[in-house]
Amino acid sequence: MTGSTPRTQVAVANLRRICEAELGAEYDLEIIDVLEHPQVAEDQRILATPTLVKQLPPPLRRVIGDLSDREKVLFGLELLPSDRAPGQSA
Questions:
Q1: CB atoms closer than 10 angstroms to residue 14
Q2: I need a labelling partner for 66 at 20 to 30 A (CA). Which of 50, 52, 75, 83 fits?
Q3: How many whole angstroms separate alpha carbon 90 and alpha carbon 86?
Q4: pLDDT higher than 80, residue 2
Q5: Does pTM top 0.70 for this prediction?
Q6: Residue 88: which pLDDT band, with cuts at 50, 70 and 90?
């Protein structure tokens, strides 16, 4: 996240809503402000904000944007079957 902008607030709210609905309490969420911790952004190769980085289980995945597209987020978190990739008909 980059400061407390409306866009980052929307992204965090969207992500929390999706995680709570899909994962209940079975997730850890760490929000890092890249303005306060620029080295973390560099180490994680974050080039745009907001960026969601899923680390576990591997492989590492990234979702960039306001996280309003539920299917895209679920696909990025590997919670959506690959045959139901965003943009494909069910």
A1: 19
A2: 83
A3: 10
A4: no
A5: yes
A6: low
Residue whose tokens read 């980052």: 8
Average pLDDT for 34-54: 88
Alpha-carbon separation of residue 65 from 1, 27, 49, 87 (angstroms): 10, 20, 7, 16
Instruction: Give the DSSP letter string of 5-40.
Output: -HHHHHHHHHHHHHHHHHHTT--------TTT-HHH
CB 34 within 8 A of CB 2: yes
Domain 6-84 belongs in CATH node 2.40.50 = no
Residue 51's nearest CA partner among 63, 43, 59, 40 is 63
Structure tokens at 87: 């943009």
Res 79: pLDDT: 85
- Which tokens is 82 given? 């690959």
Gap between the Cα atoms of 57 and 81, Å rounded = 15
Q: Which amino acid is at 14?
A: N
